[in-house]
């Protein structure tokens, strides 16, 4: 602990370059272990020194400092500590601001690293609202940076913007901003639900959709004239199978006549999330009717066959069957306008969960 | 005269005297001038005509071949002569012309004027930007979208924040179905002004059109694939049965093409041989039945290969032939033949055989994409004449 404390003096901005570098390298390796992290997190001055060095003129120093921050913020406690400390000192180091600036900078080499820091910070539910407030003005710019594939000229891919946006939609205001038609944020983000080159982007985008779907307020927006969100959900679940002309005409235009080369989402967790989105959308009668009219059943029919033979994830199969069960029922049978209004007691809930678990085991041979 | 150099105080009287003196001198001078009538003006009765010819007052531009007032030429020279104008002035002069033509919807003339303006290669980027932008507009109204887009983009090159030009470029890109270019331009417009209503609308319209075009392409590709698969199956069926075609040389087995299977007989045109849609394994043939006696033919558009010739005859004569006065053409009273053109012979058909069996006979060739049979009454002179007709074998080089 004492040795760690001693390092602090070598990590001041005006120190000799080689001393800073060596000290920082040592600190970075410390952040790789739990004890090391705890040690550093307990020393406010050390944390401040690290933050300070992220803005160092020397590229290697700055990089090591940011990498250290990534490790330190990886878990909730560390994230909270770093964030709050940064707020308190003078001059204020508004970490979210710094991160956003770097990410928006086309020439920033550390944009990816900072986006990982921000992703870690926003994941913490208690911090998300405050960070959202700071980031709100820059959201359109961040969306632009995300949507334009070669935005960053120093080879940063900015994939981690997806989880950042996703985390921000945990907060109601975040969802509100995403769905605001004026900035068309959602339109820019949605295509990445099928972005083959990065599971991080896909995962983040699908997470955004899921957060929005779980908030009934937005169901109307989701199932409006435009189909954007519905298409984003269905596209990863669609495959190359041919539908008849009649069935094709029902589908949203982007999903009609898909070619032989179409593949489905490879990550089962993501497939499950998409199916959960659909399940949420089945809550109200109006939405159910819209889903039926858009050929969702037909798509899931083919998807189920594929999942049983190729995907082979039993939880996905269950999730799919849950949706299909509802879609196949006639409205008179359901007799309910809104599933959310049904009350389920705790014992019933437990029994259902147990039944599901047992059923799931039988799904795959 | 008194010496005015010395400062003298003039009295009013003296001033008046001097004035009168000067007046008198002037009158004398004028009187002394040659007295002549003013003849250079316009004759009174033709002043309207002359007005119309004067470059300042003319109401119509002179057409080629008209006499022009010498001043007109002079003015033209002034306006368009590169020596009389700087580059920029010249460019602006042509630009004025162009704008004038635009206002009067003479777009081709406008293009010409702006082009001349551009040719001056003047140094002022703002002027060049406007010239390209305006020419772009002229092209746009002439529906020359490619030229309009190119000009609008050149305008943007000279002046990157030229919103009007960018908007026009976006519209051109849409018309040309360059969807990605249009999207990019609309987004640039919205970045500068998020409330640009038209850009928002175009962005949306463009996206929808792109989705449509993509979907149509996919649909066509799917159909083409289906057709190809269907044709492949048909081809396999024909090859399996070793069907022979008249239009193919005997030895060389060329590929069966769609072209080969198009029936040449007009009534059969729309019914090329195909596989039965239900069972996908029975061939359905178009056929022509020729009556040498009457020099006309009957056409059957869809005969399954499983039908026997007898079945076909029954169908053919279900109702008697209009020209068959003696009602001789009945299934039991006719012989059916087919020609083997290569060998120059005819073969008699066994009516109990199915079409498939007949087609597989050594001498049978599909002719003009269809089955061709000749029907004559049994043991008649008609039959004899038909049989003994001169037929030459076809020779292939």
Automatic annotation (TrEMBL), chain A:
<dbReference type="Pfam" id="PF04064">
    <property type="entry name" value="DUF384"/>
</dbReference>
<dbReference type="InterPro" id="IPR011989">
    <property type="entry name" value="ARM-like"/>
</dbReference>
<dbReference type="InterPro" id="IPR016024">
    <property type="entry name" value="ARM-type_fold"/>
</dbReference>
<protein>
    <recommendedName>
        <fullName>Protein HGH1 homolog</fullName>
    </recommendedName>
</protein>
<dbReference type="Pfam" id="PF04063">
    <property type="entry name" value="DUF383"/>
</dbReference>
<comment type="similarity">
    <text>Belongs to the HGH1 family.</text>
</comment>
<dbReference type="InterPro" id="IPR007205">
    <property type="entry name" value="Protein_HGH1_N"/>
</dbReference>
<dbReference type="InterPro" id="IPR039717">
    <property type="entry name" value="Hgh1"/>
</dbReference>
<dbReference type="InterPro" id="IPR007206">
    <property type="entry name" value="Protein_HGH1_C"/>
</dbReference>
<feature type="domain" description="Protein HGH1 N-terminal">
    <location>
        <begin position="103"/>
        <end position="272"/>
    </location>
</feature>
<feature type="domain" description="Protein HGH1 C-terminal">
    <location>
        <begin position="277"/>
        <end position="334"/>
    </location>
</feature>
UniProtKB/TrEMBL annotation, chain B:
<protein>
    <recommendedName>
        <fullName>Cns1/TTC4 wheel domain-containing protein</fullName>
    </recommendedName>
</protein>
<dbReference type="Pfam" id="PF18972">
    <property type="entry name" value="Wheel"/>
</dbReference>
<keyword id="KW-0677">Repeat</keyword>
<dbReference type="GO" id="GO:0006457">
    <property type="term" value="P:protein folding"/>
</dbReference>
<comment type="similarity">
    <text>Belongs to the TTC4 family.</text>
</comment>
<feature type="coiled-coil region">
    <location>
        <begin position="221"/>
        <end position="248"/>
    </location>
</feature>
<dbReference type="GO" id="GO:0051879">
    <property type="term" value="F:Hsp90 protein binding"/>
</dbReference>
<dbReference type="InterPro" id="IPR019734">
    <property type="entry name" value="TPR_rpt"/>
</dbReference>
<keyword id="KW-0175">Coiled coil</keyword>
<feature type="domain" description="Cns1/TTC4 wheel">
    <location>
        <begin position="279"/>
        <end position="387"/>
    </location>
</feature>
<dbReference type="InterPro" id="IPR044059">
    <property type="entry name" value="Csn1/TTC4_wheel"/>
</dbReference>
<dbReference type="GO" id="GO:0005634">
    <property type="term" value="C:nucleus"/>
</dbReference>
<dbReference type="GO" id="GO:0030544">
    <property type="term" value="F:Hsp70 protein binding"/>
</dbReference>
<keyword id="KW-0802">TPR repeat</keyword>
<dbReference type="GO" id="GO:0005829">
    <property type="term" value="C:cytosol"/>
</dbReference>
<dbReference type="InterPro" id="IPR011990">
    <property type="entry name" value="TPR-like_helical_dom_sf"/>
</dbReference>
């Amino acid at each position: 602990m004492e040795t760690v404390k001693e390092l602090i003096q070598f990590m001041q901005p005006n120190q000799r370059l080689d001393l800073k570098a060596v000290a920082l390298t040592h600190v970075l390796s410390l952040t790789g272990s739990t004890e090391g992290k705890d040690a550093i997190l307990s020393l406010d001055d050390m944390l401040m020194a690290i933050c300070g060095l992220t803005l160092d003129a020397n590229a290697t120093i700055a990089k090591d400092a940011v990498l250290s921050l990534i490790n330190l913020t990886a878990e909730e406690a560390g994230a909270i500590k770093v964030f709050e400390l940064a707020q308190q000192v003078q001059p204020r180091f508004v970490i979210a601001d710094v991160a956003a600036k770097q990410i928006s900078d086309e020439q920033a080499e550390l944009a990816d690293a900072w986006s990982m820091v921000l992703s870690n910070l926003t994941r913490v539910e208690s911090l998300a609202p405050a960070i959202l407030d700071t980031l709100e003005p820059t959201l359109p710019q961040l969306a632009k940076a995300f949507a334009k594939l070669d935005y960053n000229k120093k080879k940063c891919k900015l994939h981690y913007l997806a989880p950042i946006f996703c985390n921000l939609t945990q907060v109601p205001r975040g969802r509100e901003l995403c769905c605001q038609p004026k900035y068309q944020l959602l339109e820019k983000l949605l295509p990445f639900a099928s972005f083959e080159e990065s599971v991080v982007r896909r995962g983040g985008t699908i997470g955004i959709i899921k957060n929005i779907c779980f908030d009934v307020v937005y169901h109307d927006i989701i199932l409006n004239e435009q189909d954007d969100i519905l298409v984003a959900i269905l596209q990863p679940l669609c495959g190359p199978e041919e539908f008849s002309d009649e069935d094709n005409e029902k589908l949203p235009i982007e999903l009609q006549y898909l070619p032989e080369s179409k593949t489905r989402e490879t990550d089962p967790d993501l497939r499950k999330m998409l199916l959960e989105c659909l399940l949420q959308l089945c809550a109200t009668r109006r939405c159910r009717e819209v889903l039926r009219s858009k050929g969702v059943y037909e798509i899931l029919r083919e998807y189920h066959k594929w999942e049983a033979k190729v995907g082979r994830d039993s939880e996905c199969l269950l999730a799919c069957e849950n949706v299909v069960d509802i879609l196949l029922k006639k409205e008179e049978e359901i007799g309910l306008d809104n599933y959310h209004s049904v009350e389920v007691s705790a014992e019933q809930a437990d029994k259902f969960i147990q039944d599901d678990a047992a059923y799931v085991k039988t799904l795959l041979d | 005269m008194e010496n005015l150099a010395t400062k003298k105080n003039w009295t009013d009287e003296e001033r008046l005297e001097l004035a009168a003196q000067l007046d008198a001198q002037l009158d004398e001078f004028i009187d002394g001038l040659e007295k002549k009538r003013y003849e250079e003006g316009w004759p009174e009765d033709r002043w309207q005509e002359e007005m119309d010819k004067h470059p300042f007052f003319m109401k119509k531009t002179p057409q080629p071949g008209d006499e022009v007032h010498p001043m007109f030429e002079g003015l033209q020279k002034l306006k368009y002569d590169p020596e009389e104008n700087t580059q920029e002035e010249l460019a602006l002069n042509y630009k004025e012309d162009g704008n004038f033509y635009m206002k009067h919807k003479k777009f081709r003339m406008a293009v010409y004027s702006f082009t001349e303006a551009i040719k001056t290669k003047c140094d002022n980027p703002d002027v060049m930007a406007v010239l390209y932008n305006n020419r772009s507009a002229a092209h746009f109204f002439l529906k020359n979208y490619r030229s309009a887009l190119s000009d609008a983009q050149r305008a943007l090159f000279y002046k990157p924040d030229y919103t009007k030009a960018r908007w026009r470029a976006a519209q051109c890109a849409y018309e040309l179905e360059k969807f990605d270019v249009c999207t990019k331009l609309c987004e640039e417009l919205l970045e500068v002004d998020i409330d640009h209503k038209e850009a928002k609308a175009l962005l949306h319209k463009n996206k929808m059109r792109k989705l449509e075009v993509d979907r149509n392409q996919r649909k066509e590709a799917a159909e083409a694939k289906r057709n190809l698969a269907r044709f492949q199956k048909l081809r396999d069926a024909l090859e399996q049965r070793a069907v022979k075609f008249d239009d193919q040389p005997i030895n060389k087995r060329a590929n069966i093409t769609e072209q080969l299977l198009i029936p040449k007989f007009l009534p059969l045109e729309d019914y090329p041989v195909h596989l039965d849609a239900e069972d996908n394994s029975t061939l359905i043939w178009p056929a022509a039945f020729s009556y040498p006696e009457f020099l006309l033919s009957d056409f059957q558009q869809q005969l399954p290969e499983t039908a026997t010739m007898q079945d076909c005859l029954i169908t053919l004569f279900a109702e008697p032939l209009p020209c068959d006065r003696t009602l001789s053409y009945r299934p039991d009273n006719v012989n059916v033949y087919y020609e083997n053109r290569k060998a120059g012979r005819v073969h008699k058909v066994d009516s109990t055989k199915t079409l498939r069996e007949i087609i597989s006979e050594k001498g049978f060739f599909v002719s003009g994409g269809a089955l061709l049979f000749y029907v004559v009454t049994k043991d008649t002179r008609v039959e004899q004449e038909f049989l003994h007709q001169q037929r030459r074998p076809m020779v292939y080089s």
